[in-house]
DNA sequence: AGTTAAATAT
DNA sequence: TATATTTAAC
């Protein structure tokens, strides 16, 4: 029997070990096919006689996972004894002769596929797809016992993919946290960039099983990466909401990092042809696959890296991490640790951090900002969507409740607010109207997305050990240059320039607390600070975080 | 390792 | 063309 627990467990390298019944009256042909199958590490038992084959099956029903039957070995005047007798076993018919009616007859009788000889290696290699397909799609619950182990194995593999990824032996485990822990986490999305999600299987007939099959294929073929030792890659997915529309969304992906060392080899090319027709055209990078399967698939393949899709969730984690660490300590490695997203690399974080910082500074690549004049893009829309720019973390006393949302874009506000436990002024529950929903603002243009960058991370988790960190953040009170009340948003245009200036100044002040405050900024009164701390039930004050002193 | 700029991919 | 990410460089 195939179905022992050990089988399931040990069958990590599925489909290797798949047991194939080969029935072909032509011994030469049989030998040839058998050889090919064995090269793929399938276990083949050849029968030249149909009765022997049927006998073997009847005596040990679970002996085989799939059968390959040469038509003439089974055809008795139009009746296919084997097919009629063996309904549970996925059977692939093969023939030298191309006879449509025979093909149809076989399919009608349950053959899962009809192939013309000589059977290509690719076809043979992919016979497992039928097995998996049948295991998952057998009508009703009637899954042949011989396929149960496969089903479980596949399920197990797919599942593993999501949960464990430790990959290599030496990978540090710092990040073991599974991304799935949180309900809503969908972390990285792997996007197969191509558009197609699930390429068609080798066989046309299947419909539903495809996705699964393809996934398997992907898993098997590609693999995971490797990375420098820092992290592992894989990712996962859990997708959620978006899943519905696109198929792709489910998988998340990530790619890896550069130095991969493993050599994974070459096994991968196998199926490309089957699937990626679309992808192929573009660079190979597109073929991202999910690598999360640490185990099964270690074979690495081409080491292309998948692009990390900074989904809102992922970004949220990122921002939260940054906030917890505080500006000065928000470095890639630490952020990465806090994020606990598997598969994400330090480089990925660094890159995102770079972008994040730029946004915070309102430095869009093109913008001309004194120090950042990279004048690539001379004109930028001068319209800044964000409302006002409260640049202070501490809200003016008079607005203590009114939570003023921090300026979306590069504002610093987010730093203060989101931190867990320390929800400063930003009122978590309801954001002001202008605040873009959780959508993906930043995927759009300028102002729009920008908001996602600066906006507070949503829900401050209960209490985080770092909750106190944020304090050192902006405690300055901004003397509104526009001379308007905080609650009133001046026209965007008016603010733009000033805002950028302000952000810059504030940033400077925060990062260099030892320097005198620039004009326009005034420190909050001790009273207001204490009051705020008190309100937040913070009794102790860090004297220095990053070397900066808050108050004492 | 962290930043930042340049290169690429979409 | 602009943007989002990755790579390369420092």
From TrEMBL:
Pfam families the record matches: Myb_DNA-binding (PF00249), Response_reg (PF00072)
Coiled coil: none
Tree of life domain: Eukaryota
Keywords: DNA-binding, Nucleus, Transcription, Transcription regulation, Two-component regulatory system
Cellular component GO terms held in the UniProt record: nucleus
Domain Response regulatory, chain residue ranges per copy: 19-132
Record-linked InterPro entries: CheY-like_superfamily, GLK1/2-like, Homeodomain-like_sf, Myb_dom, Myb_dom_plants, SANT/Myb, Sig_transdc_resp-reg_receiver
Protein known as: Two-component response regulator-like APRR2 isoform X2
Cellular compartment(s): Nucleus
Domain HTH myb-type: 304-361
One GO process term, biological-process aspect: phosphorelay signal transduction system
Assembly: Binds the target DNA as a monomer.
An example Gene Ontology molecular-function term: DNA-binding transcription factor activity
């Amino acid at each position: 029997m195939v179905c022992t627990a050990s089988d399931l467990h040990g069958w990590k390298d599925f489909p290797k070990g798949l047991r194939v019944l080969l029935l072909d009256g032509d011994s030469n042909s049989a030998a040839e096919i058998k050889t090919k199958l064995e090269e793929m590490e399938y276990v083949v038992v050849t029968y030249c006689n149909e009765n022997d084959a049927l006998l073997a099956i009847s005596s040990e029903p679970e002996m085989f996972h799939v059968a390959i039957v040469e038509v003439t070995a089974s055809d008795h005047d139009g009746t296919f004894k084997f097919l009629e007798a063996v309904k549970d076993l996925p059977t692939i018919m093969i023939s030298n002769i191309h006879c449509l009616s025979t093909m149809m007859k076989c399919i009608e009788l349950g053959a899962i596929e009809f192939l013309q000889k000589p059977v290509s290696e690719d076809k043979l290699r992919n016979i497992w797809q039928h097995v998996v397909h049948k295991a998952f799609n057998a009508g009703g619950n009637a899954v042949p016992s011989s396929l149960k182990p496969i089903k479980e194995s596949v399920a197990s593999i797919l599942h593993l993919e999501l949960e464990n990824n430790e990959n290599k032996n030496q990978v540090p485990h710092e990040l073991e946290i599974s991304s799935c822990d949180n309900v809503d986490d969908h972390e990285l999305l792997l996007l197969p960039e191509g558009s197609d999600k699930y390429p068609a299987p080798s066989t046309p007939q299947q419909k539903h099983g495809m996705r699964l099959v393809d996934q398997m294929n992907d898993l098997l073929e590609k693999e995971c990466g490797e990375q420098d030792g820092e992290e592992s890659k894989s990712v996962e997915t859990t997708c959620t909401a978006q899943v519905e529309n696109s198929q792709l969304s489910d998988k998340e992906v990530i790619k890896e990092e550069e130095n991969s060392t493993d050599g994974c080899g070459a096994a991968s090319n196998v199926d490309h042809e089957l699937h990626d027709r679309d992808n192929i055209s573009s660079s190979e990078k597109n073929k991202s696959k999910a690598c999360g399967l640490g185990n099964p698939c270690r074979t690495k393949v081409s080491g292309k890296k998948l692009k990390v899709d900074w989904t809102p969730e992922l970004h949220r984690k990122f921002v939260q991490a940054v906030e917890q660490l505080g500006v000065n300590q928000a470095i890639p490695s630490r952020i990465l640790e806090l994020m606990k997203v598997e598969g994400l690399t330090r480089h990925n974080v660094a890159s995102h951090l770079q972008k994040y910082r730029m946004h915070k500074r309102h430095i869009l690549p093109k913008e001309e900002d004194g120090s950042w004049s990279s004048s690539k893009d001379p004109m930028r829309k001068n319209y800044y969507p964000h409302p006002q720019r409260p640049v202070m973390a501490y809200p003016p006393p008079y607005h203590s409740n009114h939570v003023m949302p921090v300026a979306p874009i590069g504002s610093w506000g987010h730093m203060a607010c989101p931190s867990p436990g320390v929800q400063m002024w930003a009122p978590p529950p309801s954001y002001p109207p202008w605040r873009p929903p959780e959508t993906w603002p930043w995927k759009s243009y300028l102002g729009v997305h920008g908001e996602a960058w600066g906006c507070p991370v949503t829900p401050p988790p209960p209490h985080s050990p770092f909750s106190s960190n944020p304090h050192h953040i902006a405690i300055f009170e901004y003397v509104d240059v526009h001379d308007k009340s905080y609650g009133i948003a001046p026209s965007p245009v008016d603010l733009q320039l000033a805002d950028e200036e302000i952000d810059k100044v504030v940033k400077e002040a925060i990062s260099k607390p030892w320097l005198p405050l620039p004009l326009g900024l005034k420190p909050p009164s001790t009273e207001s600070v204490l009051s705020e701390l008190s309100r937040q039930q913070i009794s102790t004050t860090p004297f220095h975080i990053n070397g900066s002193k808050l108050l004492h």
